[in-house]
Amino acid sequence: MNTPDAEQPPAERPALRALLSYARPHRGVLSVVLLLTLLGSAAGLAQPMVIQSVLTKLMTGSSLRDDILLLVGLLVLSVGLMWSQAWLSERTAERVVLQVRRGLISRLIRLRTSELDRTEPGGLTTRVTSDSTLVQHAATGGLIQLVDGSIHLLATIVLMGITSLPLLGITSGVLLVLGVAMGVVMPRIRRVTTEAQRSVGDIGAALDRSLGAARTVKANGGEAKETERATAAAESAYRAGLTGARYHAMIAVLSGLIVQASFLAVIGFGGALVATGTLDLAALIGFLLYLFNLGGPVLSLVGGTTALQQGLGALARIEEVREMEAEDDVDEQHAAPVGPPPRVTVENLTFGYPGRTPTLVGTSFTAPAGEVTAIVGPSGSGKTTVFSLIQRFYDLDGGSILLDGTDIRSFTRAELRRRIAYVEQDSPMLAGTIRENLLYSAPDASENDIADVLRKTLLDGFVAGLPDGLDTAIGSRGLALSGGERQRLAIARALLRRPQVLLLDEVTAHLDGLSETALRKTVEQAAEDCTVLLIAHRLSTVTSADQLILFEGGRVRDHGLHQDLLARNDLYRDLTATQLAAAH
Ligand SMILES: Nc1ncnc2c1ncn2[C@@H]1O[C@H](COP(=O)(O)OP(=O)(O)OP(=O)(O)O)[C@@H](O)[C@H]1O
């Protein structure tokens, strides 16, 4: 089975090890990049040596031809090496970000419903967009800069020591200050990066909330409130960004100042040494050139450490997603099972949402195979929750659900959900065309099958009247549908799938009397091939069902036929007196 996690690093891995795990698949090319970088650095480091030799020859009047040729060669080599390493490094960085995003997308789409219930979608999407970009730079450029900067720095220090030990002593003292400052500032940069990324996630969450309920916001004059909410998150990101910028500026100024201070100290002290004849002038100039070159590795170290700290901050947020539970058994690709409709048995079910009082407290009932079972009951009595549990959106706390005597937990989620079609209360559509929506889980359905379900759900006239027919775009960017059209389309999609079990949650809520009667007949016909469970709020749906289950407070209070319940059950009589629907 192809689980999405197979190639992912384990969740609890410390951030740095996780970062290295992203770099590991690219170790070959990263080694080449490092080699090119080191060669480039060596070519740069060799230049002061050649310049020292040129100066000495100038003083002694010897030929400069070889040295000049060597200098030009070194320059051309440095440029070539720099270009190749920059290209390879950037290309690898793009590959790393793709790898991170692939893993995240696959995981996010398979997250358990319970995880999605407690997380803002906006916060999750920024993990895929901006956080992964920070990891990209840390896992490639950052690591390379760090290794190159360290080796380059070490090599420069050794060469400086060879040139003049006393001058190196002075320089090291000044550089130590920079090291200490970086040690103090870097963890702070990591903290503010995490904070900034969290705030960017909050902006996404705030906008998701406002745009997802745009009509409610407009109707309630909530624009100012919603703007304030998203702006507060943007301002918090700005503040964290400013703090980060302050730290960056501090480090940049400090490294500049320290290189300057080293220059002054070396020129003063070195000048005195030259004046007393302890040091020759060529050595002083060579040392100054090394000092000048020190800027490169120092900047590499600062840049690499900053990228690493930012990457580790972002990685901590990405690892949070990996720690969330995902469904790892939803990816099997098999044709839908064609078989007789099963008996659905719910046995002594107990279930509670996290942090809430239990919703179901010992619910038991049986929906006979190939019949229509209607579930009725007051709002909040747990009807929709039973549908969620039948599809394993949540794990049961106790009891069991059986299909023809087989516990649903013995199926993978993919196997189980393939047997079931579900029409949700608000019948959401996916942005796309009507055809794409209909074929969403029945890609092999023929044009005849589509025409048939459109007829059964009374959508044939509606679709024929659209300029692009089945290819008309709907959803967030396309044609808006009425509540009734959306419900009928959702039922058509469910029927096209030819399920063994059909779960309908309040699907007649938006329909007029005529459409409702026609749909009821369609559902009755569908029951010839599948077991239908429907949550009903309309009396007409209830009276024609083969069996009624009356829910109250997470328990089955009664069951039977409409007439029987009407005769013996007060709650049912109350519900029917208000046409069931009005009881909500
Ligand atoms: N995802 C969730 N997280 C936490 N609590 C939930 C969640 N979904 C439902 N609930 C709670 O569980 C209880 C039962 O909800 P459920 O939707 O099953 O009721 P229902 O009988 O279908 O109601 P209605 O007829 O109004 O749709 C309610 O108190 C509801 O607030």
TrEMBL record:
It comes from the Bacteria. The keyword ATP-binding applies. Keywords: ATP-binding, Nucleotide-binding. This is ABC transporter ATP-binding protein.
